[in-house]
Amino acid sequence: xxxxxxxxxxxxxxxxxxxxxxxxxxxxxxxxxxxxxxxxxxxxxxxxxxxxxxxxxxxxxxxxxxxxxxxxxxxxxxxxxxxxxxxxxxxxxxxxxxxxxxxxxxxxxxxxxxxxxxxxxxxxxxxxxxxxxxxxxxxxxxxxxxxxxxxxxxxxxxxxxxxxxxxxxxxxxxxxxxxxxxxxxxxxxxxxxxxxxxxxxxxxxxxxxxxxxxxxxxxxxxxxxxxxxxxxxxxxxxxxxxxxxxxxxxxxxxxxxxxxxxxxxxxxxxxxxxxxxxxxxxxxxxxxxxxxxxxxxxxxxxxxxxxxxxxxxxxxxxxxxxxxxxxxxxxxxxxxxxxxxxxxxxxxxxxxxxxxxxxxxxxxxxxxxxxxxxxxxxxxxxxxxxxxxxxxxxxxxxxxxxxxxxxxxxxxxxxxxxxxxxxxxxxxxxxxxxxxxxxxxxxxxxxxxxxxxxxxxxxxxxxxxxxxxxxxxxxxxxxxxxxxxxxxxxxxxxxxxxxxxxxxxxxxxx
Length: 510
What we know:
Elements (H helix, E strand, L loop, with lengths): L3 H10 L5 H12 L2 H10 L4 H16 L5 H32 L1 H26 L2 H29 L5 H5 L1 H16 L11 H6 L2 H10 L7 H7 L3 H12 L5 H14 L7 H4 L6 H15 L3 H14 L7 H26 L1 H24 L7 H18 L1 H11 L6 H30 L3 H19 L8 H13 L3 H22 L1
Helix pairs in contact: 2-7, 2-9, 2-11, 3-7, 3-9, 5-6, 5-7, 5-22, 6-7, 6-11, 7-21, 7-22, 9-18, 12-13, 12-14, 14-25, 16-21, 16-22, 16-23, 17-20, 18-19, 18-20, 19-20, 19-21, 19-23, 20-21
């Protein structure tokens, strides 16, 4: 009863994050998922300039022209080595988050980004294209670590009623990075032939920004108490994030989770595959992560230039129209961040996949009859933007949010390592197979994607519970029903008894 005024005040005034929380999201995001989006985007603009650089370097080094097939191979290595680096980053990101802390891992990750920027920047003046390959690999590692650790930090510092919106910060900064890369890569800025080394090395600026601003914010309170057992620093961090008058409810939630875990150490990824208690959570993460990558969003970007040309847009104007696709993604990430804690995760992600199914059908028909009527290309163009909006509204952002919410502290880093590895492998696989799918099926490739989107939507509808406004322990209890069936009641009784003992201890200590 003694906490009722505090909780009422928290309910009444805690609808929006404090400035400290908001600035922490910005400090974490600028060197986290922003780097991934930025580095995915900027490699497109200097493609022809890098081809010319490879030819000139090879000629000056070996006194003969570069074979066209070898040129294609070298360019493929430069483009795809980023994915391999991302996979390595995902595999080490969870371990870094456990050993160095969430904040420490992100700060250390910037050293990798700065080194990558230096290598890519000096590749042209030194005439060593190998440095370009090494730099792309390192910036891939940086992106993989950022995609793994940033959602961990945001999910753990956010209050329960704002966890979805704050976790969407990962998606907002990712799409913001894509849009920024598209703008900076315009030929009027750094996309010209003289400036492409500066364009590739410009990823050092977000790294320096995070090194400058992130140290001012505390470590994840959940990491401090549950993983490090440091209650004083946890309380100090919570006061800084939530205010000295409203931190106690969050402190109590973390203490309850700590007590329920009973000193359980952080898990390894392979341990999750043999643990019945996280069986369905793991299946959900695998299905959602693969569903996100294989949803057809890459096909949309592949067809975008062709559709814009068919709509009568001049080739030199297409890069500016393409900015609209990046702006769409950024806008929907912001919209989803505002809606997620009110509408709920299930409605948004299911609705997103169903809308993508609808627009896949429309695109299949409009691309089939593209030459028949003059207005059909405009239907295709509208469908592209609608598909991107639908992706950003659901699968684009909520996938990472749900991964943070359906695992408890001891399993969360390992879960992100698994999700990251699957995401990068799927990203690489679709990059390798997609040209063959498009060449074989033409516009009917969207039939494959609409089937995939509808199946993932059905899976989510049947299996995934709503996690809005629930604590991590409440979500775990919901999954225990799936994982243990008839044995759930016994486990609930044991957990209730342990929580009762903890509550008595907590009240006495207060």
